[in-house]
Amino acid sequence: MNRFFALIFLLICQTTLFSQKNKTKTVETSKPFVLGVIDEIQSKELNEKRILNIYLPEGYNPAEATKYPVIYLLDGSANEDFIHISGLVQFNSFEWINQVPKSIVVGIATVDRRRDFTFPTTVEKDKSRFPTTGHSDQFIAFIEKELQPFMDKNYKTNESKTIIGQSLGGLLETEILLKKPFLFNKYVIVSPSLWWNNGSILDLDSEILKANFSQKTEIYVAVGKEGLAPTAMPRVMEVDANLLTEKLKESKSKNIKVYFDYFPEENHGTILHPAVANSFKFFYPTVKE
User: Fold this and answer.
1) Of 169, 192, 187, the residue nearest 279 (C-alpha)
2) Residue 167 near residue 272 (C-beta atoms within 8 A)
3) Is 63 left (phi over 0), alpha (psi -120 to 50) or beta?
4) Exposed end of the chain (fewer CB within 10 Å): N or C?
5) Rounded to whole angstroms, how far apart are CA atoms 236 and 221?
6) What are phi and psi of 179, to 5 degrees?
């Protein structure tokens, strides 16, 4: 009988030891899941350090000659849009999908989007509600003079530059498009906050509208079922997006292509992901055999 209890005790001890070894082994073999790299850039234009979340495509090798398109993503923090947009780019560049060329994604982590994405407003209520606003000129200078040169110097980039932004990010994109259109050749403008400063941006003239504009530029504008903008004077987000599209379609340049997409099933919070997926279909149409 004593031998029986001794055998049971021995079996329990062996089981416990085996279990502990397995637990130790699990801890030792676990590794972090790496989606990309985190880089930093000290900006003189913004007088601050900015975080860049960067997705590098499969096969990326800095020692090789291959160069890649770059997709610049506003609101590119890890807890914003960087992860799901990088996933879209990765998925659409799989060999069996082959919708998008393998690309680098640069997520510009947010510090103060109201400061960075808006130009000065004459609306007193907005000035008081959002006291840091009105410095998009500095953020655009950061992109032009610091960020793009930084990427071209430190990563294997080619001439293709896309920018993606939503809401106030879409407002900033529209400002870049109309004021400095050569910074990018593909624009994904989603639910743009064109209501800012009573829609004054829709009245801007631009070289992109002229016949001699020479850069091939593709512009994708998308909006969901979003309704009234947060303004004292009634403005409708869908109407403003249509007005922007019509303005761009009136360009006399043959190098401008404009696409408009309406998502009646989506709202301001849900539209970005399906809109970006659709923009790839417009930019890179599949050739039917």
Assistant:
1) 187
2) no
3) alpha
4) C
5) 15
6) -100, -35
